[in-house]
Protein backbone atom coordinates (compact mmCIF):
# COMPACT_ATOMS: atom_id res chain seq x y z
CA UNK A 1 0.00 0.00 0.00
CA UNK A 2 1.12 3.52 -0.73
CA UNK A 3 0.31 5.82 2.19
CA UNK A 4 0.84 8.99 0.15
CA UNK A 5 -1.51 7.78 -2.59
CA UNK A 6 -4.10 6.72 -0.02
CA UNK A 7 -3.88 10.15 1.66
CA UNK A 8 -4.25 11.97 -1.68
CA UNK A 9 -7.27 9.81 -2.58
CA UNK A 10 -8.81 10.58 0.81
CA UNK A 11 -8.21 14.33 0.45
CA UNK A 12 -9.71 14.36 -3.05
CA UNK A 13 -12.68 12.28 -1.87
CA UNK A 14 -12.07 9.54 -4.42
CA UNK A 15 -11.41 5.82 -3.98
CA UNK A 16 -7.84 4.52 -3.94
CA UNK A 17 -6.72 2.99 -7.23
CA UNK A 18 -7.28 -0.53 -5.85
CA UNK A 19 -10.78 0.38 -4.61
CA UNK A 20 -11.60 2.10 -7.92
CA UNK A 21 -10.66 -1.03 -9.85
CA UNK A 22 -12.86 -3.18 -7.58
CA UNK A 23 -15.75 -0.72 -7.96
CA UNK A 24 -15.36 -0.73 -11.75
CA UNK A 25 -15.41 -4.53 -11.82
CA UNK A 26 -18.70 -4.59 -9.89
CA UNK A 27 -20.54 -1.41 -10.94
CA UNK A 28 -21.11 1.25 -13.53
CA UNK A 29 -19.31 4.40 -12.44
CA UNK A 30 -19.44 8.04 -13.49
CA UNK A 31 -15.93 9.48 -13.45
CA UNK A 32 -15.32 13.24 -13.60
CA UNK A 33 -11.74 13.93 -14.68
CA UNK A 34 -9.57 16.54 -16.37
CA UNK A 35 -7.97 15.56 -19.67
CA UNK A 36 -4.30 16.32 -20.30
CA UNK A 37 -5.31 19.32 -22.45
CA UNK A 38 -7.24 20.77 -19.49
CA UNK A 39 -10.75 19.91 -20.72
CA UNK A 40 -13.14 18.48 -18.12
CA UNK A 41 -14.80 15.22 -19.05
CA UNK A 42 -17.46 13.05 -17.47
CA UNK A 43 -17.53 9.40 -18.50
CA UNK A 44 -19.87 6.56 -17.58
CA UNK A 45 -17.74 3.44 -17.50
CA UNK A 46 -17.29 -0.07 -16.15
CA UNK A 47 -15.14 -3.19 -16.12
CA UNK A 48 -18.07 -5.51 -15.37
CA UNK A 49 -17.63 -8.82 -17.18
CA UNK A 50 -21.30 -8.89 -18.23
CA UNK A 51 -21.12 -5.44 -19.84
CA UNK A 52 -17.75 -5.14 -21.53
CA UNK A 53 -17.21 -6.81 -24.90
CA UNK A 54 -15.10 -9.95 -25.17
CA UNK A 55 -11.38 -9.48 -25.85
CA UNK A 56 -10.33 -9.61 -29.50
CA UNK A 57 -7.00 -9.58 -31.28
CA UNK A 58 -8.01 -6.56 -33.38
CA UNK A 59 -9.08 -4.44 -30.38
CA UNK A 60 -5.97 -4.42 -28.19
CA UNK A 61 -7.63 -2.32 -25.45
CA UNK A 62 -10.05 -5.20 -24.87
CA UNK A 63 -7.11 -7.31 -23.70
CA UNK A 64 -6.50 -7.10 -19.95
CA UNK A 65 -2.70 -7.38 -20.21
CA UNK A 66 -2.62 -4.38 -22.59
CA UNK A 67 -4.92 -2.30 -20.36
CA UNK A 68 -2.65 -2.83 -17.34
CA UNK A 69 0.64 -1.69 -18.93
CA UNK A 70 0.67 1.78 -17.37
CA UNK A 71 0.14 2.19 -13.65
CA UNK A 72 -0.86 5.85 -14.11
CA UNK A 73 -3.63 5.14 -16.62
CA UNK A 74 -7.00 3.52 -15.89
CA UNK A 75 -8.51 1.77 -18.91
CA UNK A 76 -12.28 1.27 -18.87
CA UNK A 77 -15.20 0.42 -21.12
CA UNK A 78 -17.23 3.59 -21.83
CA UNK A 79 -20.86 2.40 -21.84
CA UNK A 80 -22.11 5.48 -23.72
CA UNK A 81 -19.44 5.55 -26.44
CA UNK A 82 -19.46 1.72 -26.53
CA UNK A 83 -15.69 1.57 -26.64
CA UNK A 84 -12.52 1.36 -24.59
CA UNK A 85 -11.26 4.65 -23.14
CA UNK A 86 -8.69 5.62 -20.55
CA UNK A 87 -7.90 8.42 -18.14
CA UNK A 88 -5.10 9.21 -15.75
CA UNK A 89 -5.87 8.27 -12.15
CA UNK A 90 -4.17 11.44 -10.85
CA UNK A 91 -6.57 13.60 -12.90
CA UNK A 92 -9.80 12.25 -11.36
CA UNK A 93 -11.95 14.95 -9.74
CA UNK A 94 -14.93 12.89 -8.61
CA UNK A 95 -16.29 9.33 -8.77
CA UNK A 96 -19.94 8.27 -8.39
CA UNK A 97 -21.40 4.78 -8.54
CA UNK A 98 -24.53 4.54 -10.66
CA UNK A 99 -26.98 2.85 -8.29
CA UNK A 100 -29.51 1.51 -10.79
CA UNK A 101 -27.77 1.13 -14.11
CA UNK A 102 -30.19 -0.36 -16.57
CA UNK A 103 -28.54 -2.69 -19.05
CA UNK A 104 -30.93 -1.60 -21.79
CA UNK A 105 -29.33 1.85 -21.61
CA UNK A 106 -26.25 0.55 -23.31
CA UNK A 107 -27.86 -1.99 -25.62
CA UNK A 108 -28.61 -0.84 -29.10
CA UNK A 109 -32.19 -0.93 -30.31
CA UNK A 110 -33.04 -4.25 -31.83
Short recap of the structure:
The protein is of the alpha+beta class. It has helices at 3-12, 17-26, 64-67; strands at residues 28-34, 40-46, 73-78, 83-88, 92-97. Helices cover 22% and strands 29% of the residues.
Layout of helices and strands, plus pairs?
Blueprint: H1 3-12, H2 17-26, E1 28-34, E2 40-46, H3 64-67, E3 73-78, E4 83-88, E5 92-97
Antiparallel strand pairs: 1-2, 1-5, 2-3, 3-4
What keyword list fits this structure?
110 residues; alpha+beta; 5-stranded antiparallel β-sheet; disordered C terminus
Task: Describe, in plain words, how this protein is organized in 3D.
This protein is an alpha+beta fold and 110 residues long. The protein has one domain. It contains three helices and five strands, in the order ααββαβββ. A five-stranded antiparallel beta sheet has the order 4-3-2-1-5, with helices on one face. The C terminus is likely disordered.
Count of strand segments? 5
What characteristic shape results from the CA principal axes? globular
Mean pLDDT: 81
Q: Mind summarizing the main beta sheet?
A: 5 strands, antiparallel
Please tell me how large the radius of gyration is: 14 Å
Report low-confidence residues grouped into runs of 5 or more: 105-110
How are the strands ordered across the major sheet?
4-3-2-1-5
Multimeric organization: single chain
Question: Helicity level, as a percent range?
Answer: 10-25%
* Integer count of domains: 1
Assign the structural class, choosing from mainly alpha, mainly beta, alpha/beta, alpha+beta, or little secondary structure.
Answer: alpha+beta
The arrangement of helices and strands along the chain is HHEEHEEE
Question: What proportion of the residues form beta strands (DSSP E)?
Answer: 25-35%
* Distance between the first and last residues' Cα: 46 Å
Count of helical stretches: 3
